[in-house]
Structures are given as C-alpha cells and as structure tokens.
Design a protein that fits this description.
By secondary structure, the chain is an alpha/beta fold. It is built from six helices and seven strands, in the order ααβαβαββαβαββ. Strand 4, helix 5 and strand 5 form a beta-alpha-beta unit. The longest helix is centred in the middle third of the chain and has 14 residues. The protein is globular, with a radius of gyration of 15 Å. The termini are far apart. Bound molecules: S-adenosylmethionine.
Length: 185
C-alpha cells in the first residue's frame, strides 16, 4: 500500500486544487497521512506540518522514509484526535474521509472546526466505486460532505471530479476544498 501511496506525488494528487493551498508558510495538519507523501511535500514547501497516522506500520515507515523532512508525526485518529493541538491553516484529508462512518464524520467535522484557524482550508479527496475486499469504506458523496461542512460554517471553494491515478477499474474521486467561514486574522 505504501508503495502505491508513494508512487504518485503530492502535486499529481492535488493538481486541480494546488492554487488553493497557501503560498505563505502555514500550519498544516495531514489527517490519515499514510506514509507521509503529502506531509513531506508540504514541509518542503516551507509549511509547518503535523502528520497524524494511526497505523503503526505506516507511521513508522513515513518517519523513516521522510526522515529529515521536518514533519512532526502523531499517533492519533479521527474523530477524537485528542493528542492533536491546533490551530491549523490547512487540514488535509487525502483518501481518508470515506473510511469514517456517518457518526464519525459528524464528530470528525466538529473536531476539524476546533482544530481550524479562522479562514482555514480543508482539502479532502473522496473515493468512489467498488470497496476493496476487507476494507472499511463507505461511498460518501460530495453533496453530503458539503452539507455536513456547512453545518459547521465551512463553505465550498472547490468541488470537482477526477479519475484514479492508478487507473483502478471503476474507481473515481471527488476533490473537495472547504473554507472556514470566520474571517482569517
Ligand atoms: C488510503 S490511505 C491514504 C493515506 C495518505 N493520506 C495518502 O493519500 O497516501 C487512508 C489512511 O487513512 C488512515 N485512517 C483510517 N482511519 C483513520 C482515522 N479514523 N483517523 C485517521 N486516519 C485514519 C489509514 O491508516 C491510512 O493511512
């Protein structure tokens, strides 16, 4: 799995929304960071990055292969994220949100708000299509995600479809970028 995660780049995965990431050095949290591909790339761009990953093997691998990237790794999981301290200007959830059930997504969005600085951006990708054998995954639509986010004061900046970079049969993605409605300080 990590080979697959690291087989594409942050710029490839986020190419449709790269312009919505801040240029100025910012505080970023990558929730469900996997092996740290995005966390390391964002740190290399000058951001201060916390990578949160509950799977020990992936977190340890990420710490090893991206050693020296300046990423802070935390063992924690949505929705509680009890060990994560905000505020953050960017909350990244790449291929993570659909691994949460409905109650977890509700609690998770509430927690994302408390981790967000005013005006923060939430960047997420949603996977659609067949659920691989043995994976815990739901088909979470973009409209229901935007509707849930709206309840917590986030407004959509971007919603768009894209194909699967690994060309897996029947797999499609939606990219969603949300912005916290409070004015940035
Ligand atoms: C498909 S992988 C994506 C990894 C990475 N974001 C990437 O794009 O390469 C999904 C990740 O979400 C993590 N994950 C699953 N449930 C989670 C939860 N409740 N809280 C945080 N991370 C979770 C998994 O351990 C895994 O690393």
């Amino acid at each position: 799995m990590a080979e697959q995660y690291e087989g594409v780049t942050f710029a490839d995965v986020h190419r449709d929304v790269l312009h919505l990431f801040p240029d100025a050095p910012s505080r970023v949290v990558d929730l469900g960071a996997g092996s740290g591909r995005d966390a390391a790339a964002l740190a290399a761009l000058g951001h201060r990055v916390v990578a949160v990953e509950p799977t020990d093997e992936l977190r340890r691998l990420g710490e090893r292969i991206h050693a020296g990237a300046g990423v802070e790794w935390v063992d924690d999981s949505l929705p509680e994220l009890a060990g994560v301290q905000g505020p953050f200007d960017v909350v990244l959830l790449t291929a993570v949100w659909m691994h949460l059930d409905e109650a977890e997504r509700l609690a998770g969005m509430r927690r994302i708000l408390t981790l967000s600085a005013p005006g923060a951006r939430v960047v997420m990708t949603l996977r659609h299509g067949p659920v691989p054998e043995g994976r815990r995954m739901w088909d979470v639509s973009a409209p229901e995600t935007v509707e849930l986010a709206d309840r917590f004061g986030f407004r959509p900046l971007y919603v768009g479809a894209r194909t699967d970079l690994h060309a897996r049969s029947g797999v499609r993605w939606t990219m969603v970028v949300l912005e916290d409605g409070r004015a940035a300080s």
